[in-house]
């Protein structure tokens, strides 16, 4: 019989969520990995999430289909261009168009339901309030509020059987600190994917907010970036197509 504590780990196949999974494993948790096919344009991340789940030998990797593209309203789920080449100052001036309405609220709700069924007391999520792209659902205030709600909304919480804790071990870390922590825990970042607008083969664009923050993190951590980026000709064609579309 396995007497390890169970944890649901939200996994996008990206740098942050993979580091969080490594942290959960290092703390001795039995890992249940949860990913979402929500109609995102960068669905290649689901293949990365599957690779991560296999690498960590999780107890179960569950992919939920949501179809948030039917709602739209985001460059990740709608016919809206992904911003490219933005400075960090510009990234945090306003909530970017890559924000997916209510995404983390929805993801955490599914994680909460699965955790209750598993009788797990911990949900791990890779949100971050320092090197983030202005998303309101990555803030500590949101996480604290959701945790309070979760313990009011579940049978386990009301009956006092299991008090749910939303774990955010990366909340106060820079991207470089996250990478160093992951490297110390043996994370192979070559299997992760962060790009919002990959090419047809799944290579990263190198210019979206997520790619730029990832590049900066590896540079500041003094760690070689294992990301496979699209070639310059492909990126130039994408920019040209976008300009034609706007005229």
Rg (C-alpha, Å): 18 Å
What is the straight-line distance between the termini?
Answer: 64 Å
Going across the major beta sheet, what is the strand order? 3-2-1-4-5
Looking at the structure, the CATH topology is Rossmann fold
Beta-strand share of residues = 5-15%
Number of domains: 1
Please identify the oligomeric state.
single chain
CATH class: Alpha Beta
How does the major sheet shape up?
A: 5 strands, parallel
Labels describing this entry:
single chain; 247 residues; alpha/beta; Rossmann fold; 5-stranded parallel β-sheet; 9 helices; 5 strands; 10% strand; globular
Q: What does this entry look like structurally?
A:
There is one protein chain. The chain has 247 residues and is α/β, with parallel strands linked by helices. It has a single domain, classed as HUPs (Rossmann fold, 3-Layer(aba) Sandwich). It has 9 helices and 5 strands. It has helices at 15-26, 44-55, 88-91, 103-118, 140-153, 155-158, 175-184, 209-221, 232-246, and strands spanning 6-10, 30-37, 60-65, 122-124, 165-167. A 5-stranded parallel β-sheet has the order 3-2-1-4-5, with helices on both faces. Helix 7 packs across helix 8. The longest helix has 16 residues, at 103-118. It is globular. It starts with 5 loop residues before the first strand and ends with a helix. The mean pLDDT is 91.
Blueprint of the fold:
Layout lengths: L5 E5 L4 H12 L3 E8 L6 H12 L4 E6 L22 H4 L11 H16 L3 E3 L15 H14 L1 H4 L6 E3 L7 H10 L24 H13 L10 H15 L1
Parallel strand pairs: 1-2, 1-4, 2-3, 4-5
Helix pairs in contact: 1-7, 7-8
């Amino acid at each position: 019989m396995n007497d390890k504590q169970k944890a649901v780990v939200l996994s996008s196949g990206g740098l942050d969520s993979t580091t969080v999974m490594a942290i959960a494993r290092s703390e001795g948790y039995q890992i249940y990995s949860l990913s979402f096919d929500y109609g995102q344009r960068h669905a290649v991340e689901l293949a990365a999430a599957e690779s991560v789940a296999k690498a960590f030998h999780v107890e179960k990797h569950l992919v939920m289909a949501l179809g948030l593209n039917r709602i739209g309203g985001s460059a990740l789920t709608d016919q809206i261009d992904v911003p490219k080449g933005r400075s960090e100052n510009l990234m945090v001036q306003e909530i970017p168009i890559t924000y997916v309405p209510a995404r983390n609220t929805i993801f955490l709700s599914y994680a909460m339901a699965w955790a209750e069924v598993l009788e797990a007391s911990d949900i791990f999520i890779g949100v971050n309030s320092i090197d983030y792209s202005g998303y309101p659902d990555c803030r500590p205030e949101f996480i604290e509020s959701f945790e309070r709600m979760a313990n009011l909304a579940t049978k386990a919480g009301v009956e006092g059987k299991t008090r749910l804790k939303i774990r955010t071990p990366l909340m106060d870390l820079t991207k470089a600190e996250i990478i160093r922590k992951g490297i110390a825990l043996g994370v192979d970042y070559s299997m992760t994917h962060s790009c919002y607008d990959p090419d047809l083969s799944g290579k990263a664009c190198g210019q979206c907010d997520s790619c730029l923050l990832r590049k900066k993190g590896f540079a500041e951590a003094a760690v070689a970036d294992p990301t496979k980026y699209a070639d310059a000709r492909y990126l130039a064609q994408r920019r040209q197509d976008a300009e034609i579309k706007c005229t």
